[in-house]
Amino acid sequence: MTTYEEYRKQWELDRKEAKTYPLTRGVPLTGTRTIVPYDIPVSTIDVDAALAVLPPAPPVRPRLPPTDDPETVSLTLTTSFQTGTDRWAQVWLATTPQKRRVVVKLFQEALFPRTYKSGFECYASWSAVALSGVEAWGYEQAKALQGLLLPHSYGFYRFELPCRQIVVGLVMEYIEGHSFKRDYEAMVDGSFYSMESRLKREPVLQQLALSVYCLHLCGVHHGDLSVRNIKQLPGPSPFFVFLDFAQCAPYTFYTTWKGKPDCTGLWQCLGEIESSENVVAWVDPPFARGELWAINLINEQALAVYRRSVNAVERP
To answer: Which of 29, 3, 23 lies closest to 111 in space, CA to CA?
Structure first.
């Protein structure tokens, strides 16, 4: 069994090499397909029930056509999305020899945040092996949602990096969407508070909440819902795609997860779209009626806290 001192010494050597020979734009990578193991069993789900909560005609995003050699992948890095030290993954936009754009998420442990001695006993839960395994399980458990609420997964591969480290990476669909954010200009000029503007935002709230509910119906608790991990697709109707499943877990109503509860993450995201008081006013009626999606996403205790926080803000 590796001691902390052995781990620290090797980690420091690996980080030095990773920083000396970093990934940069234009670097070619060749990967060999690998099976990433995971300890969590894949459960049976009611796919029809899950898909029934989505819009009747969701945007269609077909998979890339298969290549002549499905066991290998050749990529050229083009744009960095998340790179550098103290990152749980190095994420790049890349192109294939056929000029198709994909995203590659590399679990390069040398660039992970350092594990200190006090937390070394939990290292196995945050290693590259563990995080890639959790991500692999999430994509398999929610396989029915790939190309809908999840990017298409093109598989996990082993890559040799310029620093000669061998890492596992997930190759997936590139999502051409945008992160939603509060319309501060409309708040300044007052149009944000008009009834017309509020009615336009309600379908966005509804679709985001139902998308999280759909994910739960497929047996997956995301564990890190945030603005950076959700993309809204362009189009006349709101539609969302979830990213980053390295902290996901099996969904059960009473489970405590290692990531933050999805109800907390969802509330924070809804608060980027709409004012807190309007979010409470929007979710209160369906919760009182016992609608399943509302009960699934917001429990009584959380809603009481949200109501109190809104009332505290409203008091002079």
So the answer is: 23
Phi, psi of 241 (to 5 degrees): -130, 130
Q: What is the pLDDT of residue 312?
A: 55
- Six-digit token string for 51: 């898909």
**Architecture category of domain 4-46+56-173 in CATH:** 2-Layer Sandwich (3.30)
> What is the distance between the alpha carbons of residues 49 and 288, in angstroms, rounded to a whole number?
22
Question: What mean pLDDT do residues 272-294 have?
Answer: 92
For residue 179 the two structure tokens come to: 């992160």
Mean pLDDT of the chain: 92
The tens digit of pLDDT for each residue in 10-21 reads 999 999 999 999
pTM above 0.90, yes or no: yes
At CA 219, angle to CA 215 and CA 221, rounded to 5? 65
Sign for the CA dihedral angle at 256, 258, 261, 264 comes to positive
Instruction: Delimit the domains of the chain by residue range.
Output: 4-46+56-173, 184-314
Alpha helices (H) along 119-261: 123-126, 128-141, 184-189, 195-217
What six digits make up the tokens of 161? 């990096």
Q: Which residues are CB-neighbours of 46 under 8 A, at least 6 positions away?
A: 217
User: pLDDT digits over 296-310, tens only?
Assistant: 888 777 777 777 776
Nearest to 270 by CA among 218, 213, 206: 206
255 pLDDT exceeds 60? no
